[in-house]
Amino acid sequence: MRQPKFRVRERASAQNGVLGLLAVAASWGLFWGGWAALIPEIKSDLALTDQQLGLALFAVPVAAVPSMVLTGRLAQRLAQHTLPVVTGVFALGVLLVGLSGTHLAFTASLLLVGAASGAIEVALNATMAAREARDGERLFNKVHAATPLAMVVAAPCVGLARQLGASALAVLVVIAVLVGLSAVMAIDPAGWSEKSGSTAAQAAPRQFYSPLLLVGAVAATVLLMENAVEQWGAIHLETELAAGPLLASFGPAAYMAGLSAGRLLAQWQGAALGDRTLVISGGALGLAGLVVGAAAWSPTTTLIGFAVAGVGLAPVVPTLMGAVGRAVAHDQRSKAISLVTTIGYAGFLSSPPLVGTLAGWLGLPAVLTIVALFGLVVMAGAAALRLLPTPARAA
């Protein structure tokens, strides 16, 4: 039996919309995955001291946090236009970083990059939540899988480009163009109208504020654990197992690969398992993987541990975001996503100084073991999902 033409057009529009989300997530990861490989050349080109570079890089989180807060309100006004707009601004910021010729211009461009990057995090999550409500398809794990995969690919590609003589400007121009193309792909003329027969629980702001804080705290815990591996995994392999630079670089890469694989698995079976099961099992696997990685028995077991931790923790934050999006009424959805995303980002920011300070006292293996125990907090935090309003869906 042939399907009506409008059904085919609706399905094609939804598929194109998902490609746009994947493109934004991938291009965003492309920049941040290659960024670390570009910093040494930029530092040399601008003749920056370590202090000047550190202060300039601090501009990213300084701009990102207030931007996250404001983007929730912006999304209520711009709706489906929010993501293309902020992604376009991000592309401009990336280009300006490459064009910076002075310390001041470099810092100013990083302020724009940080603000736009924070806005993308909120806008992407808000857009996915609205699309899920509109199209009835789970998207969070699928789309979030693109970012770590792009980061894994970007780092060696940028390193190879530099090895072949490409300048930082050339690399950043290419990335800016790709980000700009993803902004165009993210344009969705269909809007954020709810799917017929599907509604979210109409909770008043005060009723869902406390549960959102708890969900945000769980997300912050997961991101603290993630950043500990991303920032300290290579150092752990070099200092504890005498791994060379190439082998040590596989520590964060193994974790990132685990993130992508775990999110694809959750996209495949997540709806059948349920949100609480994904969060509890994710915390357990994250704990087990990081304990094995921290033990530093051998490079192989450490890499396996990091990969297992990545697979486990991978679906937790996307699952939390999806649950919030389904639980909150459409007129409060962007604010709720903004709140949870901002709280989660606090965990990401606190991880490097926390792990670094404790490692100076206790040693890195002991600190990574302590970080692993935060998996228990994640497992317990799954109970916060029960406090969210329950979506009421018509048959």
Describe the structure concisely.
By secondary structure, the protein is mainly alpha-helical. The chain has 15 helices and no strands.
What keywords describe this structure?
mainly alpha, Growth Hormone, Chain: A, 0% strand, globular
What fraction strand? under 5%
Written as H for each helix and E for each strand, in order along the chain, the element string is HHHHHHHHHHHHHHH
Number of domains in the coordinates?
2
Q: Name the shape in a single word.
A: globular
Low-pLDDT ranges: 5-10, 196-205
> What name goes with the CATH superfamily of the largest domain?
MFS general substrate transporter like domains
* Proper CATH architecture of the largest domain: Up-down Bundle
CATH topology of the largest domain: Growth Hormone, Chain: A
Query: What is the count of β-strands?
Result: 0
Look at the structure and give the mean pLDDT: 85
Characterize the biggest β-sheet.
none
Instruction: Kindly name the structural category.
Output: mainly alpha
**What's the CATH first level of the largest domain?**
Mainly Alpha
**How helix-rich are the residues, as a percent range?**
over 70%
Number of helices, counting only DSSP H or I runs of 4 residues or more: 15
Radius of gyration: 21 Å
